[in-house]
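User:
Can I borrow your eye for a moment on a structure tokenisation matter? Would you put together a sequence-and-structure record for a protein of your own picking? Please set it down just below, with no commentary around it:
AI:
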Amino acid sequence: MPLQSNTNRPKECVIVLCKAEHNMPGTDTATTRGFRVQQTEGEDCLVVECFGRLVSENVPALKQAMLEACTRKRRIIVDLKEVPMMDSSGLGAVVTLHVSARTRGCKLEVINASKQIRDLFSMTNVLSLFEAAGRCGGRMG
């Protein structure tokens, strides 16, 4: 799936995880009752790593981080590796963020989702919004 870009970068979608342990500065942007969001900038993307349960009380922290992310990069990767559980509010937030990102000209990708989250995405037909990331080298799970 081609990325929308005004540069001469390749149009192929290749997900690069840009984590803080690779000497890239990470920024903790939000913390709510054990839930934390960390943003790390890569060359062509912004990785938003989530830590903790993505449930109703933590949704505002993710939404705030994502709105800030859309102003900085056109490609945003939400890494759910450290999110063991997501409820319907978390699911709704991911869908809302996907729509908001598209309206702002950004591309939102979700990677490293647990089996519980993949099953939730599949049961609610949300998985198709993010299948492109899996086809282009990223992983939903």
Residues 37 and 50 are 5 Å apart (CA to CA). Helices lie at 59-72, 88-103, 115-123, 127-135. Residues 88-103 form the longest helix (16 residues).
